[in-house]
Write a structure and sequence with these properties.
This protein has about 500 residues and is an alpha/beta fold. It is built from 14 helices and eleven strands. It folds into four domains: about 230 residues, Cation efflux protein transmembrane domain (Alpha-lytic protease prodomain-like); about 80 residues, Cation efflux protein, cytoplasmic domain (Alpha-Beta Plaits), CATH 3.30.70; about 70 residues, Alpha-Beta Plaits, CATH 3.30.70.1350; about 110 residues, Alpha-Beta Plaits, CATH 3.30.70.1350. A four-stranded mixed sheet has the order 1-4-3-2. The longest helix has about 35 residues. The two termini are about 25 Å apart. The N terminus and C terminus are likely disordered.
């Protein structure tokens, strides 16, 4: 299941809190719209002001839009269901689109009526104190609700509330334009001038100004809502997401990014390439790191991120990596891979684990297919020599004989210290298999200088094993656990973060 990121609270469900606050903001906007519509309509009819009537109609549509927004934010907060797998966030986008249509109708009617009054009809407008008062009240109310809507929209990333906030900010300017028109009419009557007959028409000119502002806001609103409804990637977010994913250690390439917004939620569908030699646990860690990086790149907020990983040949993949990968593809495990260069070709020796119940003929057919697959994966490989092994899939019962064989423990330590240095062997365990009581198995911990390479440590461990087998004929399996003598190396390993471990191991570790 994709991980969802959101602002969390230890006590209150963040989704419920967001729905509650968004609903309160939308409901307060509805109440303000009811108040302003009634005031403007009453004063517009009393004064005959087209500018105020236009504002009343605008406020009436604001009321419809606010009601739609209120319903939208209530519905958009509902969780996903079998019929709406991506949730109900698109309701906010749809409500903003409907609001755009209402604003276009408003602007068209205002332009028509303003042109009619400017050129074809004469209407007397009274610049009364009531007209001034209602416009001043409108400006004050719009300032308050636009600020409240902006705050909640920003906090919860709500497009519907953000559109309402932008709308009401423009209402402030449009109301100011109407107020200026009324002031011009009042000044004309106060000083007895009409400026060639144009001053009485200032109200109609102010209405045209209102229509222009409405058209400007509507064009932006239509563009934003249409982009979201048509799944247009938000801004340059896709580029940021791609760059963020490719910076994660272990990501070979970011092949595809798809983004869409539904209300306050951003959905991201990303395909990344990961080295095919990575283990499942490493690949999962890389996927989680990519999700976190994408969440940060899109600016936080609620996001639903799906990361699909595809295995690819990494630039630093080695021939023995390719051999192990092909073996896994054919249902086998390969280890102890050894490559030798013969002129221009590579010969490979490897141990292959197969189902112990297979016949030799069936196992040989598998290794023959493995040889063909390896040559296809790396044409440089010529001869492939396989050693069949039947891994034991059960837990073997053994007895711990360490305390009973103190003399043998001392002998093992002396042999190990002879290779690794005095005091290097600090822990020895002796086991007796129940199935073969005449034999013993050893596990010993040895310390080596921390600046030695792994190959150097492996060579010394193999030398210890040889000496032990020569000295103890009854010895079966031996495991030498190597530890660094440098305390700093152990501290550095202990303090490494999961991301650093992934970065250090990827992509060259064998499967």
């Amino acid at each position: 299941m994709p991980e969802q990121f959101s602002t969390t609270s230890s006590r209150i469900d963040p989704a419920a809190r967001a729905r509650r606050e968004k609903g309160r903001a939308a409901l307060s906007s509805v109440a303000a719209a009811v108040l302003l519509t009634g005031l403007k309509l009453a004063v517009g009819i009393l004064t005959g002001s087209l500018g105020i009537l236009a504002e009343a109609l605008h406020s009436a549509l604001d009321l419809v839009a606010a009601a739609i927004t209120y319903v939208a934010v209530r519905l958009s907060g509902q969780p996903a269901d079998p019929e709406h797998r991506y949730g109900h966030g698109r309701v906010e986008n749809l409500s903003a689109f409907v609001e755009s249509g209402l604003l276009l109708i408003t602007a068209a009617w205002v332009i028509y009526e303003a042109v009619r009054r400017l050129f074809f009809a004469e209407v007397h407008v009274e610049a009364s104190p009531w007209a001034f008062g209602v416009m001043i009240v409108s400006i004050v109310v719009d300032i308050g609700r636009s600020r409240n809507l902006s705050r909640v929209a920003k906090e919860h990333n709500s497009q519907a509330l953000a559109a309402d906030a932008l709308h009401f900010r423009t209402d402030i300017w449009s109301s100011s334009v109407v107020l200026a028109g009324l002031a011009a009419i009042w000044l004309g009557g106060r000083f007895g001038t009409d400026l060639g007959g144009w001053l009485p028409k200032a109200d109609a000119l102010a209405a045209l100004g209102v229509a222009g502002i409405v058209l400007f806001v509507t064009s932006r609103l239509i563009r934003e809502t249409t982009d979201d409804l048509l799944d247009r990637a938000p801004g340059e977010t896709a580029t940021l997401v791609t760059a963020a994913a490719e910076r994660v250690p272990g990501v070979v390439d970011c092949r595809r990014v798809r983004l869409r917004r539904a209300g306050a939620v951003v959905f991201a569908d990303v395909v990344i390439e990961v080295a095919r030699v990575a283990s499942f646990a490493e690949a999962h860690a890389i996927s989680e790191a990519v999700e976190a990086a994408i969440h940060e790149a899109i600016g936080g907020g609620e996001a639903d991120i799906v990361v699909h990983m595809e295995p690819v040949v990494a630039p630093d993949e080695t021939p023995d990596d390719a051999v192990r990968i092909v073996a896994r593809i054919h249902g086998m495990r390969a280890h102890a891979v050894r490559l030798r260069a013969i002129d221009e070709r590579l010969d490979a020796d490897l141990h292959v684990e197969v189902d112990p119940t297979l016949t030799l003929a069936a196992a040989h057919r598998l290794t023959t297919e493995l040889e063909r697959g390896v040559r296809v994966a790396d044409p440089r490989i010529g001869r492939l020599n396989t050693h069949l092994e039947a891994p034991e899939g059960t837990i073997e019962r053994q007895t711990d004989m360490t305390t009973q064989r103190a003399e043998l423990v001392a002998q093992v330590r002396d042999i190990a210290d002879g290779v690794a240095g005095r005091g290097a062997c600090h822990e020895v365990k002796i086991y007796r298999p129940a199935a073969h009581p005449e034999s013993i198995e050893l596990v010993l911990h040895c310390s080596f200088p921390g600046d030695l390479t792994v190959s150097q440590v492996h060579a010394r461990s193999a030398e210890i094993e040889r000496h032990l087998h020569n000295a103890l004929p009854q010895l079966g399996a031996v495991l030498v656990h190597a530890e660094p003598t440098d305390e700093g190396a152990e501290a550095m390993h202990a303090e490494s973060t999961p991301a650093q471990i992934v970065a250090a191991r990827m992509p060259s570790d064998p499967v």
